[in-house]
Amino acid sequence: MTAKRGRPRNMETQKSILNASYELLLEKGFAAITVEKIAERAGVSKATIYKWWPNKSAVVMDGFLSAASERLPIPDTGSIFDDILIHATNVTRFMTSREGKIIAQIIGEGQSDPALADVYRTRYFQPRRLEARQLLERGAQRGELDKDLDAGLYTDLIYGPIFYRLLITGEVLNDEYVERLVRLAFQGLRP
Fold first, then answer.
1. In this predicted model, which residue has the larger pLDDT, 188 or 85?
2. Do residues 83 and 75 make contact, with C-beta atoms less than 8 angstroms apart?
3. CB atoms < 10 A from the CB of 135, how many?
4. Could you tell me if 49 and 143 are in contact, meaning their C-beta atoms sit under 8 angstroms apart?
């Protein structure tokens, strides 16, 4: 492909690269992936990948996020409790799935790769955090929650224990745990 900088990406080529990076991530894990392997699997040159992404971390995260975004819809049931419960349950189910466990690998790699840590924070965690905040703020606007609630604090209160179990303790993460967690958090959220 001989596209000049500034031209729009060829969507078919982009999809091929993202699919290749995601497949390799599932098959081999983050550490074993190289830009060369992605290029080979996608049938493109390394230059094409580097034209669109600054490094391996960025293309792998984009491949992962492309696949993950389909699995994490934002609910709007009309009930803030149900919305948060559905969202937190979906996040937990995804994080404990084969695909979601990749995030734990990526976080581990990010401890020695600041560029990767920045990518997963800005491209995966901050958007999930923003979704949860928006759900809570919507609940406050509808009068279901205290209008002065600290949405960031409550987001941490609800989602922090999920990631603590996932990354630190290894304790069971299931629907029952998430429901107990959300019910407990909502005791302090109600107006």
1. 85
2. yes
3. 21
4. no
Phi then psi dihedrals of residue 39, to 5 deg: -60, -45
Residue with tokens 């937190």: 88
Q: Residues 103-113: what's their mean pLDDT?
A: 84
Q: Which residue, 71, 64, 116, 114, is CA-closest to 92?
A: 71
Nearest to 173 by CA among 160, 190, 185: 160
CB 91 within 8 A of CB 159: yes
Residue pLDDT, tens place only, 130-147: 989 999 999 999 999 988
Q: How is 57-122 classified by DSSP, letter by letter?
A: HHHHHHHHHHHHHTT-PPP--S-HHHHHHHHHHHHHHHHTSTTTHHHHHHHHHHTT-HHHHHHHII
* pLDDT at 68 exceeding the cut of 90: no
- Burial class of 113 by CB neighbour count within 10 A (0 to 12, 13 to 18, 19+): middle
**Tens digits of per-residue pLDDT, 17-30?**
999 999 998 898 88
